[in-house]
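Write out this protein's structure.
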Amino acid sequence: LVAAITLFFCIPNFYLDIKFENVIKAHSAFFENSLNSLIPSIELHDVMYKHMAENTSGKTPKLAFIGFDGHTAEAVAVQENDIASPFYQIKQNGGGIYLSRTGGARFGEQSTVTGPGWTSLFTGTWAKTNGVKNNEATLKPEVRTIIFTLNALGISAQFFYSWQPHGDIIYKNEREAYPTAFVCAYNDAGTVKEVINAVNCNVDAVFCVLEHTDEAGHGYGYYLDKPEYVQAVESCKTDANAIINNIENRSTYDSEDWLIILTSDHGGIFKKHGGNTARESMVFIAADKKIF
């Protein structure tokens, strides 16, 4: 009976993963890598660190990290020919869009939920090392986020978010050390406003997480046949474009070396996430230059 029940629940998940992967395959030219060569999300940390702390371009290094909570790789793939998409513009301008994975060093080792997902990206470590195994855990004091590390080096960095556990629980110790580096804006509109203000005030590295897609996913499902989820993806596009346009319109832009990142912490299946299906664990990393 147990085996029959397990099979009953696994078959729909397998079918949904196949559909998901078929969409990715249909737009394979949009990505720099394939389903067989997913990049561990933790590898982004070192790319960002080297850009900011070891930059040899001769220009002022700058960084904009724009995170979309619960944004699926499938929803990126279908933007291949969407001229209004920041992903399309990144690709057209010589950047790279990569298929990535979260969930630990080994398949299913780490829960695909918000806290562990973003912490892996920010620290370059999996939950087994950093201690953030769920949304109620606090980052181990011996592990630092790139936000903390850059500030410790004298490079100004700020993280803007509206999901309060980021500052109140997960990174609370770092927030105590650098109170102005962790800013809760309470909603996505406020987050975007704060990011643009920080860019205009010459903060060197800005990080943000927008909640549009995760809220819609939990409410209606993480699928492109759900109008509410599609609208959330559109809102992500609008917000990212606003931030990027503001950066590119800076009077000092030509003397700056910007690295602009678009990424996600996890996907989703039905109205949830946390498991190790492809829909939940496959994510993406987009950058305005080839980084892998």
